[in-house]
Design goal:
22% strand; alpha/beta; 207 residues; 31% helix
Length: 207
């Protein structure tokens, strides 16, 4: 479509890309941002998610400004944080990390925060934070061992992927499901639409 604005996703996450595609949005480019995602000492989960989403957006903007084909594109960045109370759980890369996360989440409530940060073609920043409450059933040792063996937890905030096997662990979810997967679609499309991105243009191709 002539004059259609370009869209850049500041993430290499297959889940975020799949969610955008589900909403009929196909980015022209992916610009994963290499930022240190370590929470600061005493940093609260909400603040951490917001800070990291902005940092990823800043890094992607710097990259896009060097690319003549993408300059002036909409840029979307996001960061998802899983927390039990004030405690931020890691993006598990080691079995021990995932095991600790699962034992902590077993039979308890936790919260998933995703901050989204949109950079408009004019260089303005728009940010939203979405919170979802999740409760896991009590996990047995067999549950934990089998889930760890699946490898599905690797690289996932809180050591689980709700769209996979771990969906069977969820007793209750209050709020946005897609937020827990990694990108709250309702809020993301509302933010894009409010800034003039033609979010419905891709719907005709969705079928």
């Amino acid at each position: 479509m002539l004059g259609r604005p370009k869209f850049v996703l500041a993430s290499g996450s297959p889940r975020r890309l799949a969610l955008l595609n589900q909403a009929g949005i196909a980015p022209e480019a992916l610009r994963p941002a290499d930022v240190d995602e370590t929470p600061k000492r005493g940093e609260l989960p909400r603040a951490c998610a917001n800070r990291l989403a902005r940092a990823k957006a800043d890094a992607a903007l710097a990259s896009v400004q060097l690319d003549d084909d993408l300059r002036g594109a909409f840029i979307l960045a996001a960061d998802t944080v899983v927390a039990v109370g004030r405690r931020i759980l890691p993006k598990a890369e080691l079995v021990d990390e995932a095991s600790q996360c699962l034992r902590l989440l077993s039979g308890r409530n936790h919260r998933v925060y995703t901050a989204i940060c949109l950079v408009t073609p004019r260089g303005n920043f728009r940010q939203r934070l979405v919170e979802t409450r999740v409760r896991f059933r009590r996990l047995t040792e067999e549950d934990i061992a089998a889930y760890l063996a699946s490898g599905e937890w690797r690289g996932k905030a809180g050591g689980y992927a709700v769209q996979g096997i771990a969906g069977a662990f969820v007793v209750k979810l209050v709020g946005s499901y897609t937020n827990v997967v990694g990108l709250p679609l309702t809020e993301t499309t509302a933010l894009l639409g409010g800034e003039g991105y033609p979010i419905r243009d891709g719907w005709l191709d969705a079928g």
